[in-house]
User: What shape does this take?
Amino acid sequence: MENKATYSHTDPMLKKRDEFEDMLEERRNSSDFRYALKCYTPVVYKNLTPCDANSLKSMVLQSDQLHYVISQVSKETGRTREDLQEEASGIIEEMAHRLQLSTVRFFAFALCKVFKTLFKSICVNEDGIQRLQQAIHEHPVVLLPSHRSYMDFLLMSYILYTYDIALPVIAAGMDFMGMKVVGEMLRMSGAFFIRRSFGGDKLYWAVFSEYVKTILKNGLAPVEFFLEGTRSRTSKSLTPKLGLLNIAIDPFLKGEVFDISLVPVSISYERILEESLYAREMLGVPKPKESTSGLFKARKVLSEDYGSIHVYFGQPVSVRQLAEGRVNRCQFSLTPRYIPMRPNEDVQTFVNDTAYRLVRAQEENMVLKPWVLLATILLQAEDLERGIPLEELTEQALWLRDLCRQYGGFLHWPDHMTPSEVISSSLSLHHGLVRLSEGNVYLALSGEAQSGPVSPEEQVLSRAVPVLSCVSYRNQALHVFVRPALLATAVHTSASNNKQDIFNTFSFLRNMFCNEFILCPNATVQDFEEACFLLVKTGVLQVSQQEMVVTPRGHRTMSFLSRLLLPFVQGYQVVCAFLCEKASDTLTEKEFVQAIRKFVIKQLLSGTLRYPEVLSSDLQKNAFAALLRLGAVHKVKSVDQTGLKINKVTVNSLEDTLGGKLPTPKASVARL
Amino acid sequence: MAANSSSDRQRAAQQRLQIIAGHLQRPTNYQPDITAAECKAQEGNPNVSNEERTVPRRRQDIMKWNGWGYSDSRFLFNKKGQAEFTGKRYRLSGMIIPGLKDWMEGTFGASLQHKAPATPILNSTAVQPATINEAFVEEVKATTIPFSVEAEDRVFRAHGHCLHEIFALREGKIGRVPDMVVWPSCHSDVVKIVELASKHNVCLIPYGGGTSVSSALECPPEETRSIVSLDTSQMNRILWIDEKNLTAHVEAGIVGQDLERLLNESGYCTGHEPDSMEFSSLGGWVATRASGMKKNIYGNIEDLVVHVKMVTPRGVIEKSCQGPRMSTGPDVHHFIMGSEGTLGVVTEVTLKIRPMPEYQKYGSVVFPNFEQGVACLREVAKQRCAPASIRLMDNEQFKFGHALKPQVSSIFTSFLDGLKKFYITKFKGFDPNRLCVATLLFEGDHEKVLQHEKQVYDIAAKFGGLAAGEDNGQRGYMLTFVIAYLRDLGMEYYVIGESFETSVPWDRVLDICRNVKARIIRECKDKGVQFPPLSTCRVTQTYDAGACVYFYFAFNYRGLSDPIHVSEQVEHAAREEILANGGSLSHHHGVGKLRKEWMRETVSDVGLGMLKSVKDYVDPNNIFGNRNLL
Assistant: This one.
């Protein structure tokens, strides 16, 4: 296996990406009104038989699948078919979109105004738009944008309307529907609403999946949904949810369409509207319920400058091509296709791999702004309060800029400006998070003055808000560095320079963190090779048959990379420590979040823990999920709550292995 | 489990050893389980006329050696650049087809300027010298059964009508061919030949009409023994007709047109009319599980066969009586039907016959689109009122059929045609690029046909179908007889094409048609075909639970270095697509060598094992060594 580690990777630096055009520029120079009333004649699917919203509903209600499920449910529950049919039409009324061009035009007009005040520019890769148009003509299309903000789907529709592309039908969470007028308006601009959870409800599932499939099969409109399922509050991509993707791929697997194009879309915000909202949410202040009045209160955000947005429409991915040689479609020919069936293992793996692949495609085309690098550097400062001298920041930023480019990051560093101009404009855009005084740049930890006496615990929490905001910017770049960073950490923690040892540690870390970062399942060896390739290419590591050695000039990169991962390593250790030391036998899942927060605050106050970002409930939940996955913790379900059973020995050894105190166990799955 | 299966294997191996040993012993204490009886031909039969048959021993005297059908019948572009069909044999013969040139140019981007002519005559030096098994030949001579080792005779029997086979012949490329051809004239001749072949370890390949499209007649290149083509064409008599039970006992070498003509003389028919019936033989139908156009009335071959006699290296297999149905374990006829010449030679068959129908009527229906057409066929099948034949052509094939309209004789007809077209496209609003046509054939007594016709047209009307006249219907059926001649014309102008079929459940018909056609187009594009291919299909048979779908694809191969390879890749991909969409490996063409890679997944491991064990028992020395199917 040794010689398998040939570095056949294509150099990420050579990745070809399209140019951007600013679509707001034209809006600033011509009438918004005329724009909203422009002639809109998008290219549609070549085999389209036009169909209005009502006939779509009746197609769904009269579908074989729904009839089948209704008779099944009727047998199981004893309810009459009429009753269930009634319920089904109720569900579809609640769910269905009612796309109206007039509403879209209204939104286009209003959004135009809003966007022009909020953003400097909205940059779109027009080649991607061209490809999308072609794809829509050829096959049913699924649009898969990244999800970082409420803005995302309005923005998508706005862009598609502007470029005369067929408007998508968008899967939206039911919570939007709560916003009375707005909910209905969203519906009329193409949103359809699904309940957040409908676990065992077969009828609901049948109506919902048939609704999506009917739209896709007939190519009525592109279907848009968020693979990540929800907005990422941390700017890291979330582990993809498979439900909707399963539904969307099904018509291809069952031969009902020739192919389906999946189009990943990466939306990157220079400054996220919900920046501090997210940070607070991570720290335990619950998110406000979506309501129309809440939206108006959010008006004050309108007075701020949010920089630019980059929207990159990725290469359409053909499901047919992905499935070639992976899924045997014959398996669907022995049962009627309208009988819902649990997908086979090969199909499940296929859908899962596809989902990861698409999320990675989203990540790859996320535009990184210089601020992302600055945030990364600032968070690595020896002392967060003191910060870093400006010159040093500039020097490090330039260094990191080059590294980022070498690793294939999609960095938008304005080359026509001097480095100090770039940095000062970044700093001024994010003036809420960062301060510059006496030549030092530091995070605005005491930014928001609080009235009245404040307990040390509260102080810790409030100081963590800007840190977490900053973390969310740093996180944007994580996908560029995560594989080399895992390797760097593995090299540091491994007992020897032995390649197999390092691989074992790498594999352990990767396994530990795969709830945290997008790491495709079963790709350990590939990831290892990719990391090796990057570190060797940049002269950081020397790899021989048996050994991996850090070169003298490689130490800077190595220490940068391992410090990048350090908050996560320590965070996970803290979670382990908490479970070993503090958790009582009666701890429930619900109490976990509160209890661990208290524990972390204590650790921060005592100075044993350096990183306030460990307070992030996201990190804690991911660590917890990892421990569950690794069998260190078990859920014990009782009537009213879910208790936790902790295997302290396992948790303890995981903690020690993370800290490098214990040698890593042999990688069980793959060996080099 | 493992121990179990290995002991199974041991047992199987022992059994095999016994069989082989038994066979080796045979020459010493030989039991004549193959009994050579006198030729029945000498007996004669007062019932049945014995006049000339279509197929002579020297097929090349009347048929093309490197194309389809009769030498005198072919399409060509005359000096005016108009297409015409030569000869006198067909309705289309001697007619001008004005639309064909434009259609060919428009569909394929072909041009009359660019010709790819075929090698005109067979160059015998290109044919490998025959590997003669002297001892076998000596003994055959002694039996007085005619045989030949001439290159022309051998080459003629080395191929069916797959594109690659004909293309190679046109280029003058000749691969492994049989070393010898024998023409038995009755069952006992065959018994003698099989006996001698077993004795001298000669490979036998049965040859009937030579219309195979599954590479079934190709000689396995790895075969080192002498290969003898057993041409059944001279076993072509109707031995008796039983008017009490409505059966006829026929020698298996008879070709479809002779069988039908001779039965017609006595007032009967079998009603079995595969598209290849001019040339394909009764034995070939049995060996490939053939299907006829009019199966809705008469049934497919498995429904027609009452009794079969097959000569195998183990002996003759036949049932002891002619009971119309039996419960005697698995039907041994089903080992014979579809055996594709791997087990033996079918020599005589008792078939059901019917009195000739009183009345025949063609018909056609235009549908606004293919979806509606399929829905209509499905409904017809559901009500079990399908006419003798009902076929639905897609839009591309409709246009193709249209291009084959012969020049009309009077202004009046052309005026009527124009009027019809106006009515359908303008008045009824059918999109000429979406509409499709179903062709119909009704048979029976006059009154019932009219009744039946009304029933079918009423159903069609529910799906937006408009009756479009007898003429269109009849032309649709003519198309199937001349399509193979057309392929030869295409090849003259850099256009190659192939057809293949499948059967599929009703609910997947539309999906399979769409996906396979799209796959063909995509594969052609990926493989560098310059001009979009013709990719078309029709639904040719209806059943209670599904339908038979027939695909054609053809493309202009200018600019391709290895067009046949491309075409094979496209067909392969299309077959994968068919299987992925729940279609079968074949409805009636058979497996041959072309499709045998998919047999295992088609019939499962155990199924394949069953078939293999039958082969091992019946023909342990692989005398019938065409290597089809398994």
Q: What stands out?
A: Residues 19-37, 40-50 of chain B have pLDDT under 50 and may be disordered.
